[in-house]
Model the fold of this input.
Amino acid sequence: MNLQTLALAFMAATAVGGIAWVFLYPTMSGETKTEKRRAAFARTAPAVRQVDRAQRSRREQVEGSLREIEQRSKRDSKVTLSNRITQAGLSWSKKKFLIVSGIFAVVCFAVPILSGAGPIAALGLAFAAGFGLPRWLLSFLKKRREKAFLRGLPDAVDVIVRGIKAGLPLFESIKVVAADSSEPLKSEFAAIIETQAIGMPLGEACSRLYERMPLPEANFFGIVISIQQKSGGNLSEALGNLSKVLRDRKKMAEKIQAMSMEAKASAAIIGALPPIVMLLVYLSTPDYIALLWTHPTGRLMLAGSALWMSAGIFVMKKMINFDF
Done:
């Protein structure tokens, strides 16, 4: 009888313990919380994958836009004479430029011939005046225009950023820049408005700014607008970062110019010293130095000296001009 009671008690205790193990242990050990967290993660995994897929799609769009812009820049990398005239800020046609260059060449050929100089000197002067001088003038005007553009571009971008934050569309903000800015910003942004008005997308119209103003900063502006038009995003933040980058590049350029001024001054003194010495010697004893242009050997030595001086000045110029 006692054995039966003990057996029943043992079986009852075992049953109660089993029931407690089944129902209470998962709660006490944290398995229930683990299952709930696992189920919650399983429910949110598709959303996370969807977000990753959206980010991947946006990244692919940005990469595609950059690749398209790079291919277009490579395709349009050849600068024609008409483009150089436009970049210099002139409204001349290619025909007018060639006619004016030809007139300069004819005049500079006729003057030495009429004054009794040889035909070789006249041809050299005509070539320099008809081919070299006009293209040097285009390069000079282009660089001066680019410097003026770089001085005003960060302020123009800031105006666009403030307009967008105030609720204006991008196109209206660009109109404000075109109306209130000075040259050449006024004409360049007016060209963007005119290009967009004939049906071209605004992103592509801004990308074409690089064709008229071949500067990295203009390319940056076109890339930012083009990517935002295709992929979306916070345009005011992107343009704000671009403005900061433009100002940092401007500071770097000014710092480089200040650091290289000593080398530029030394190069200018070294390059100007031989002509100055020749002039002083000619003023003091003209017969002594006149052999350089009256004797054949002197002419040869003078031509060789001019060649080597030009090579030295060119090398020094390359050493002190930094590109970044």
